[in-house]
Automatic annotation (TrEMBL):
It comes from the Bacteria. SUPFAM superfamilies: Homeodomain-like (SSF46689). The keyword Transcription applies. Pfam families: AraC_binding_2 (PF14525), HTH_18 (PF12833). It comes from Zavarzinia aquatilis. The lineage of its organism: Bacteria, Pseudomonadati, Pseudomonadota, Alphaproteobacteria, Rhodospirillales. Residues 219-320 form the HTH araC/xylS-type domain. Keywords: DNA-binding, Transcription, Transcription regulation. InterPro entries: AraC-bd_2, AraC_XylS_family_regulators, Homeodomain-like_sf, HTH_AraC, HTH_AraC-typ_CS, Tscrpt_reg_AraC-type_HTH. This is AraC family transcriptional regulator. GO terms for molecular function: DNA-binding transcription factor activity; sequence-specific DNA binding. PROSITE patterns: HTH_ARAC_FAMILY_1, HTH_ARAC_FAMILY_2.
Length: 329
């Protein structure tokens, strides 16, 4: 049976489930974020969840039997905002999988996960116990912009800033849960400050590694595009396959650079190649032939893009180039 109660003057919830999985799924989904759950022995399942609010931050204590929590695509699609979840392995370890990344979080460690992708969180022990800190990603993102690039990770929660955060997450409900709203909100902000400190080194190190990886990918992509610039069949699918990455990651790489999109970049390179041929004194190719050679469907389309990019039509550019050549000669 499921029980829920709120303490007087304090944002507090308590749930208990015995032999029923659906109420436990509803409780966890309500307190953390939507999930589906499964257990090998649902009729013997026991779970207890307590949750306290500290402004933007909530802290939960969760004890249960063996269980798996699964985030599906429909859960992610329904989210109103992205959540950062910190699960402290207080008594038993747990496993986590997301986007091909498999992690194990052992005692005195903390799993940091984001709600933006499907995932599986598994507790296999007969008795499981953990503290969970729930934070809207927006509260951290302003101070750790590279958090957007970080997948799930495990940090040390036995010492240092991670250990202090673990201690505060366990002690705050007992020390200040019954305090006034402004006090609890201030404690919540302090927890976020400490979270940022605990993540800074890991996020900075990850961002540096990712920057090197991104630059290597971009160099390989650029080389492939330049080799196949005249191929009218050049496509995102073909580029991604040739460079060993997904189409989505290919587009993300260009978006992260803050410049033109992939297709804008390809078009600009083609326009530059066409312009170079228009400037060659001895070349007599028709403008329509040059346009087709560099992947443009017709001369009108080519002229429109050329003028928008260079400020003159292809014909005007060719005429000006020939005049310069005559004067120079």
């Amino acid at each position: 049976m499921l029980h829920c109660k709120s303490g007087e003057g304090v944002m507090f919830q308590e749930y208990a489930a015995r032999g029923q999985m659906e109420p436990w799924q509803d409780a966890v989904s309500n307190v953390l974020f939507p999930v589906d759950i499964a257990s090998d022995q649902p009729s013997d399942f026991n779970g207890r969840l307590r949750s306290w609010d500290f402004g933007d931050v909530s802290i939960s204590y969760i004890a249960s039997g063996p269980v798996a929590y699964r985030r599906e695509r429909h859960h992610v699609a329904a989210d109103e905002e992205e959540i950062l979840l910190l699960s402290f392995a207080t008594r038993s370890e747990f496993a986590y999988s997301q986007d091909g990344l498999d992690l194990v979080c052992r005692r005195n460690q903390c799993l940091v996960e984001r709600s933006h992708r499907p995932s599986i969180f598994t507790q296999a022990d007969a008795v499981n116990e953990m503290w969970v800190m729930r934070v809207p990603l927006r509260t951290v993102k302003a101070r750790l912009r590279a958090i957007d690039l970080v997948p799930a990770l495990v940090i040390d929660a036995g010492q240092g800033a991670g250990g202090l955060l673990h201690d505060m997450a366990r002690l705050a409900p007992h020390r200040v849960a019954t305090a006034r709203d402004n006090v609890r909100t201030t404690v919540g902000r302090t927890l976020i400050d400490l979270l940022v400190v605990a993540l800074e080194d890991q996020v900075r190190s990850f961002d540096q590694r990712q920057s090197s990886v991104r630059q290597a990918h971009l160099a390989r992509i650029e080389a492939h595009i330049r080799r196949h610039l005249s191929d009218p069949g050049l496509s995102a699918t073909g580029i991604a396959a040739a460079c060993g990455i997904s189409v989505r990651y290919l587009h993300d790489l260009f978006a992260e650079e803050g410049g033109p999109s992939l297709f804008q970049w390809v078009r600009e390179r083609r326009l530059e190649a066409a312009r170079a041929q228009l400037e060659e004194p001895g070349r007599g190719d028709a403008i329509a032939d040059i346009a087709l050679r560099w992947g443009f469907g017709d001369q009108a389309q080519f002229s429109r893009h050329f003028r928008r990019h260079f400020g003159v039509t292809p014909r005007e550019h060719r005429t000006a180039a020939r005049l310069r050549a005559v004067k120079a000669g």
